[in-house]
Amino acid sequence: MKRVILVGTLVTLVLGLMVASVYAESRRLIIQGSTTVLPIAQKCAEVFTQKHPEANISVRGGGSGTGIAALIDGICDIADSSRPIKDKEINKAVERRIDPVAHVIAMDGIAVIVHPSNPVNELTLTQLKDIYTGRISNWSELGGKNQKIVVISRDVASGTFECFNKLVLKKQRVRPDALLQASNAAVLSVVKRTKGAIGYVGLGYLSSEVKALKIEGILPSEDTVLKGTYPISRPLFMYTNGKPKGLAKDFIDFVLSEEGQGIVKEQGFVPLK
Amino acid sequence: MKRTQKENLIRGFFCLFASLSILFLLGILIVLFKEGLPIFKVTTFKEFLFGKFWYPTYEPPEFGILPLILGSFLVTLGALIISVPLGVASAIYISEAASPKIKEFIKPVIELLAGIPSVVYGFFGMVVVAPLVAKIFNLPVGLNAFTASLILGIMAIPTITSISEDAISAVPKRFKEASYALGANKWETILRATLPAAGGGITTAIILGIARVIGETMTVLMVAGGAAVIPHSFFQPVRTMTATIAAEMGETVAGSAHFCALFAIAIVLFVITLSFNILADILTQRFRKRLG
User: Which of A267, B101, B152, B189 could staple B179 via S-S, CB 3.0–4.6 A?
Assistant: First the structure.
């Protein structure tokens, strides 16, 4: 009888220790920032937690500025950003003894697309901006047919719009009568059926049913985006405080791994490879 | 346990379930107003309702939803022009003219229209109807208020038909008999006796049809084109209130002015649908009184 009690106590102790150690290992990671990076971070967190169930990752949006501010305030472990950190932010970080370290995790490239029958093959950034702000409204002004330009844009909350807005429109307003589509796939579907249409999609969504235009003489491709020669492209960042350690390191390593970069591609961005 | 106790218990149980939906409605209302009202710290009520530009993410932002309200109304009006004649005519045919065999077939078929998911309508509109509309009317793009009206009109037919049909069937037989006795033929009886008597019910049907159309989201998001401009014609892309909420809510920062503005649009939409429903209720009651 005594023996049974002894063994029982031992087993309970060992089990208790195991449970305790699992709890101790349950780690927390807070990721915050850019809505453009959000789908990558979210999907990566999802897959990562499936492999490491003890990891507790919370991913929030809020925009690049909010993310970097949160990193400086020590509220988050990883700040997602679709732009490099600004000098002002670096100064503030130094004041708070935070050392922001950048990790480029993907490239974001946007292809400008038209109907395959459209004879126009290339545009300059200024022409593209004029089309979207309403200064140019007929293809004949660009050497094409005498045809009204049907301007297709994305919902203003999307990361694709944010990037296009910054790199092409320079934050000028899109003409109000531009058609709004709520996803890359919807833009593609309208452009391939509309002769006078122009639209833009993430590079990952490009298909042979539409024609991608050269911008400033350069055709969008994974190669030109990676080299940075294609003008509507930008790197996407994750910032950490100092060199990443522990869970933050594991997570960023995962994002940069083959599997993580696969997710990057799946979400319509250009993997670093 | 006594029998009465048991009965009370069961009654209480069902009462609980019945009141649950009131609770849900209340919860939705509270959230709508809590999230939506803060927008009026950023913009005024007048600028919000009557502003002509919707640029929620620019610096400085503009939150004018007039183009969205007008877009919703234009599409609804177009849908009514299509669905009211079709819906009411089907109802008359089903209740007055069709043989029982045809009636048995056609009624479920019309009701089946209501069972098709709106995303399927939207896809059909985008892929089949829109290119056709563009071709027929020689337009640069087929995604416009006209195409949206066409599809929404078809979607509203089951609502209008089934409620109108109930109203027409509810007209007491003596009304018709009196008409026949005066020497009217079938067509005259329908037009002069049955339809006026069922008028209130048909109006209710139309109003519920309006509520159905104005709240429809997925289809208009896919088919109406989505340009937030004050519409001047049916052949122009428009954006409705529902489509705006659906397209922009997903990636908006919670608690931002844009987020509040989307909730405020939902409040406007809620008030509109609620008033239509109350109107329908009042009319139904009047109609019942008149038929006594």
Answer: B189
